[in-house]
# Entry
Amino acid sequence: MTIRIEASAAAPGVATGPAWRYPRRPTQEETAAEHDRQQSSRGAVRPKLTEVQAIAAVTDAAHRAADQLTALADRLSEAGRRDDAGIFGAQAMMATDTALLDEAIRRVRAGMDPVEAVAESATAAAEMLAAVDDELLSARAADIRDVGARIGRILRGEQPELPERPSIAVADDLPPSVTAEIPAGFLRGVALAGGSRTAHAVILARGLGIPAVVGAAGLLEAVDAATDAAVAAGSPAPLTIAVDGSRGEILLEPSDDDLGILRGRADALAKRTRRAAALRDRPGATADGERVPLVANIGTPDDAPRALEAGAEGVGLFRTEFLYMKRQTPPTEHEQMLAYRRVMTAFGPDRPVVIRLADIGGDKGIPYLGLPAEANPYLGGRATRLADRPHDLLRTQLRAIWQAGALAEVTPHVMAPMVATVADVKLLQQLRDEARDDLRSKKLPCARKIVTGIMVEIPSAAILAAELAQMVDFFSIGTNDLMQYLMAADRGNASLGSLQDALHPSVLRTIAGVIHGADSAGIPVAVCGELAGDPAGALVLVGLGVDELSADAGSLDGIRAALAAVTRAELDDLSTRALASVDAESVRAIVAPYLARLTD
Ligand code: PEP
Ligand code: MG
# Structure
């Protein structure tokens, strides 16, 4: 009988195959043997390495792990998978980083066994990262665990477990290096009980076009129970599992009917992807030629090449807070200048790069900044609210942006997140101008002007749109936060799904008001929240009058194709009906026939 398990969609596509459980479950005999081994070794004295030998063993294993990871990164890089190679390049550095190696050596000196010392140090470093309430940073915790496990395997002389046939990986969280080392063609799909959309295993899967789902509660228990039942019934074949990474669905032992439905979905998706990719050289526009620039959301300069490849007409959101992560001190003014200049140069003078001032604090805590813990981080000290705190975060950043513009010979675009009041904008203007005057007085490079915008993502700013629009050059609507604050639903709380669809008419009506305010001052409005990358969202937003959409590189093909399939008159009609709806489901139903054209 088919068992259906709900999950979150993480990488699109449909795949079916034998389940490959990671890590492999020990057999009953192995569990019994391990039990006996532990009993017999209890009290026995293990041959102990001297401290010098133990430190040498840990150091050697860490360097061998780093060498293996560098070799893996080189292989991926040669295969043209530069983003993936970057993950293992970073892991190679973690292997010999002080947080791991020095800590492990410290534990060895305190008398701990080398394998345990590495495992404990990796767990401690990972827990520190995981404690930060930020999806991306927590996902990096998996990398540290992965590196620790690799060093442990080297110390124990073991090989990593890999599937022996093309399979669907079933795990709580799949270590990225395991994902990358699985031979080509042997990983058909990924089903994770834990994980997140930004876990590296999932990023890798997405990059390889492999369907993935995450957050599948009860998955491991269901797979283990079904496997045990099959073994008890004498079935030698492994469990068959299907993953729909577009819908977020898992089927255990799918029936022939289920398989037929899944094949239909896979064919439709393949057709849509082929058609969308064929439009890549065409700038964003409706079927009747109304231009809608499609720009990219990026987190680091390394994301720029992929965005350009995906046909991005600029960068609508450079989330600069990522420059502050995975390190122990804030990036210096010079480091930041180099990062901004790199992206500006890559995009050139005709494709603007909007640099968002770091949205640090609250949920995106950076441990080394020592910001106080808060009861309601989403409603706390965050972004521009930190302007007068230590480290001079925003001043340093603004100076770096002015300089980068001068050196790249482009006019920089800067935008402030989390603006709530007129006073917030005045502070932004003051900090911006002080940074410029300071550079000029010291005869340092400084751009002639900066295009200044704000994110509209707090309801108070949306209500004040007409007034704020008089003070800035552009708006960019952050639908992720706007939705969370309008619906009073924490965007990271997986149990509030029905309140977290930004196509809700209350969000749309708020956006319509923001556009009205912007129009009264003649400034453009972009959207850079996730809604802009959702084809249904893109149509409604452009229908409402949004001028530009900014989304992850991987979403640009889909929204370009959706826009190219509709006329302005149709967009006017669908957005009018969307505004008159009372729930997000009705809005999605209104848009569905237009999206169906993409598969016709
Ligand atoms: C948003 O809030 O919609 C947004 C784009 O910013 P972030 O997701 O970084 O908060
Ligand atoms: Mg936001």
